Amino acid sequence: MSEIEFEVAGRKFRAASMAPLKAFNVGRRVTPVLTGGLKELIALVAALPAPEQETAAGSETARALDLDALAEVLAPMADALAGLSDADAEYVIGGCLAQVKVEIEQGKGWAPIQAGGQLMYDWITPALMLQITWKVLAQNLSGFFPIGARAS
């Protein structure tokens, strides 16, 4: 199995690839989240002007319009995320976090961030947990969904 190394919130993490069947089962649970508005999000990002094409006067207006469009696109994804059952959300997040180790004491080794379904560190906030989960999803589902072949 391959591993990726990434950094979130100033900490280094390593994530092993999931077993193929586990990745499939995680993927089918997150499909509604990833596909809800994904086509529109890709179109919106593709339509953004390149930074060198923006003018100073027009860039603030373009950003405001882009944020409005982005909010419209993300709404179906947020609805799909809210619609996940607790069991499915815990399956996905738990399955992802089970693959992850954190660097301890600057190069002295790596330790799992989860054991027996419980987080091992109190500094892992819900936001950090979701960022780590996204990195693992990107690594394991990039062949199924256009969510980024790179996790870093």
Describe this structure in words.
- The chain has helices at 20-35, 38-47, 56-83, 86-97, 126-141; strands spanning 3-8, 11-16, 100-103, 110-112, 114-115, 118-119.
- The protein is built from five helices and six strands.
- Residues 147-152 have low confidence and may be disordered.
- The chain is 54% helix and 15% strand.
- It has one domain.
- The longest helix has 28 residues, at 56-83.
- It has 152 residues and is an alpha+beta fold.
- α4 (86-97) crosses α5.
- The strands form two sheets. A four-stranded antiparallel sheet has the order 1-2-3-4, with helices on one face. Strands 5-6 form a two-stranded antiparallel sheet.
- A hairpin with a 6-residue loop joins β3 and β4.
Rounded to an integer in angstroms, the radius of gyration calculated over CA atoms is 18 Å
Helical stretch count? Answer: 5
Count the beta strands.
Answer: 6
| Class derived from helix and strand content | alpha+beta
Low-confidence stretches: 147-152
Mean pLDDT: 79
Helical residues, percent:
40-55%
| Beta-strand percent range | 15-25%
How would you summarize the topology of this molecule?
Blueprint (H helix, E strand, L loop, with lengths): L2 E6 L2 E6 L3 H16 L2 H10 L8 H28 L2 H12 L2 E4 L6 E3 L1 E2 L2 E2 L6 H16 L11
Antiparallel strand pairs: 1-2, 2-3, 3-4, 5-6
Helix pairs in contact: 1-3, 1-4, 2-3, 4-5
